[in-house]
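Changelog entry

Holo records now carry the ligand SMILES as an explicit input line rather than a separate metadata file. Below, a converted record for flavin mononucleotide, shown in the new format.
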Amino acid sequence: MDKIKIDNNVFIPMPMSILGVRINSKENYMAVGWISRVNANPPMIAMGIGNHHFSLNGIKENKEFSVNFPAEDLLIATDYVGIYSGKKTDKSNVFKATYGELKNAPLIDECPLSLSCKLVEIINLPSNSIVIGEIREVFCNKAYYEDKNINFKAMKAFFLTMPDNKYWSFGHEIGKAWSDGKIL
Ligand SMILES: Cc1cc2nc3c(=O)[nH]c(=O)nc-3n(C[C@H](O)[C@H](O)[C@H](O)COP(=O)(O)O)c2cc1C
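Structure line, unchanged by the conversion:
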């Protein structure tokens, strides 16, 4: 094994998303890289949200939120809502909001893929809160939806690496999951 011990504050590339909430009758958005699917049925996601972020108040207040996956053309707007806090900056007009059944889950019109989520649970960790939500509705730009599959490459979803704080585009298809392993 040719490994060296490195700083423990690392992870592999993460999908970039934008959390959408409503606070004080307005939309607020924040960039989120720490997000994953965590339950199969019903479908649930979890995010690690900083305990002091303004958006967390909206989730606690309304028990609803949206998760939006931006394309590369929204990189600057995504970064912007990841730099400035709704505590001091009104970010409600950065994106155009539409709504599905959940009226406190603003779906970002400019994002090709958006999820409406109902809060399931918040788990408190020392610096972040694990926000678990059930995906209630999913809205996908029809240009990227073919045969019940999403074409993420065409959609131009992008990724984050830390601690170098860089954004990366989607790569190439290299195999078939739940299939290629059978060759062994
Ligand atoms: C690329 C990027 C990814 C981020 N990912 C997260 C994250 O996963 N969790 C988190 O708590 N903050 C994350 N942030 C920081 C928040 O988006 C940022 O502090 C934001 O201003 C909080 O907004 P709010 O106070 O209006 O809620 C990220 C910021 C950037 C630029």
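Spot-checked after migration. The mean pLDDT is 97. The longest strand covers residues 128-140.
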